[in-house]
Amino acid sequence: MKIGCPKEIKPQEFRVGMTPNAAQEAVARGHEVIIETNAGMGSGFDNDSYVAAGARIVDTAEEVFATADMIVKVKEPQAVERKMLREGQLLFTYLHLAPDPDQTHDLLASGCTAIAYETVTDRNGGLPLLAPMSEVAGRLAPQVGSWTLQKANGGRGVLMGGVPGVGPAKVIVIGGGVVGTHAAKIAAGMGADVTVLDRSLPRLRYLDDVFGGTFKSQYSTAGATAELIQEADMVIGAVLIPGAAAPKLISRAQLSTMKPGAVLVDVAIDQGGCFETSKATTHADPIYDVDGVMHYCVANMPGAVARTSTIALGNATMPFLLALAGKGWKKACQDDPHLLAGLNVHAGQLTYEAVGTALGLDVVSPEAIVNA
Ligand SMILES: NC(=O)c1ccc[n+]([C@@H]2O[C@H](COP(=O)([O-])OP(=O)(O)OC[C@H]3O[C@@H](n4cnc5c(N)ncnc54)[C@H](O)[C@@H]3O)[C@@H](O)[C@H]2O)c1
């Protein structure tokens, strides 16, 4: 199969769909890999590293789209990229179609087959191609939060780990899923005193079993949150209610009960944020102050560490990519129901129920399509 990887063109996107290692694995299996020039530069992979892996560098995205049987990307195709997709071509990338009728329309009109990273599942009911980005955002949260806690950045001037004779920072993590667990691990590793809140008892049991000596866990209620935030130096918002906007767990009025210069890191900002005063910010201007409490609300946190994020995403996508290239999308989806769960669009038909519901469009079952 001819596998093409264009340079990402969405503003502030430095990741790339294929690493040189992924290219090498594909080439070793007899596939041809075509990379747009400088596609990997934002993640620290130069053209030579792809050439060494056996890939071919081309000058333009047009050449990639015109030549490749399968396009591998990171972000949803932008309008100009969607015009280059063609019937029978396979697209493998994040799509997030439910809030995006224009993209959905264009993908249907192109006749391509589109598999969305975010809806591929695993046998534990998880989302294996979303998890790496949650791991990155979670691990980054205490890092950016501790920077914000520094006096010059508006914070209250508290060191995460304290020093001998001076206590550590108190960190509250609301939501103990993928983001929250990684955030808590790193904050505890920096020496902070960490408490994780969740509403899922099975999840709290897991956290207690595995991390009992490292951080504390507590059942999440409005009362528990109200009490804990009064003592907190940093609160990390990491909740998710699948398919819904994030619940608002700290109100503006509650900010006055917090310590001046305390820090809120709202990782759930991409779902609307879990603090009433959260509004999305960018890496260029990530923090702001409301009533003396500092807020960090960057919606694409993994972009700050593009190289780590690219490699982590590539590790997760590679087995699926190799299956798609080796067997063709239809056989690969017949053999793997978790990959089939990623099928969102095929030959002008929408195949993902939740997208159809969100956009009021007819849906054909993916099983019917692969078994046709
Ligand atoms: N800003 C970014 O760059 C970025 C990057 C990755 C993920 N995210 C977002 O981070 C959020 C968390 O993602 P995740 O992968 O950890 O999800 P997850 O499903 O693994 O975990 C969410 C957890 O929140 C818990 N929860 C739900 N309601 C709660 C409440 N009221 N109180 C306490 N806990 C509650 C759930 O029980 C679950 O354990 C999502 O909104 C995701 O989109 C943002």
Task: Throw out a few tags for this protein.
single chain, 372 residues, alpha/beta, eight-stranded mixed beta sheet, seven-stranded mixed beta sheet, 15 helices, 37% helix, binds nicotinamide-adenine-dinucleotide
Strand runs, count: 15
Shape, please?
Answer: globular
| Biggest sheet: strand arrangement | 3-2-1-4-5-6-14-15
Major sheet description: 8 strands, mixed
* Tally of DSSP helical segments: 15
Small molecules bound: nicotinamide-adenine-dinucleotide
- CA(first)-CA(last) distance: 22 Å
Helix content: 25-40%
Task: Write a concise synopsis of the structure shown.
The chain has 372 residues and is α/β, with parallel strands linked by helices. It is 37% helix and 16% strand.
Give an overview in words.
With 372 residues, this protein is an alpha/beta fold. Helix content is 37%, strand content 16%. α6 (131-148) packs across α7 (178-189) and α11 (306-327) packs across α12 (329-335). The two termini are 22 Å apart. The mean pLDDT is 97. Bound molecules: nicotinamide-adenine-dinucleotide (NAD). Nicotinamide-adenine-dinucleotide (NAD) binds next to α6, α7 and β8.
Question: What order do the helices and strands come in, and which of them pair?
Answer:
Elements: E1 2-5, H1 20-28, E2 32-36, H2 47-52, E3 56-58, H3 61-67, E4 70-72, H4 79-82, E5 90-93, H5 101-110, E6 113-116, H6 131-148, E7 170-174, H7 178-189, E8 193-198, H8 201-211, E9 216-219, H9 222-231, E10 234-237, H10 252-255, E11 263-266, E12 287-290, E13 293-296, H11 306-327, H12 329-335, H13 337-340, E14 343-346, E15 349-350, H14 353-359, H15 366-370
The chain binds nicotinamide-adenine-dinucleotide.
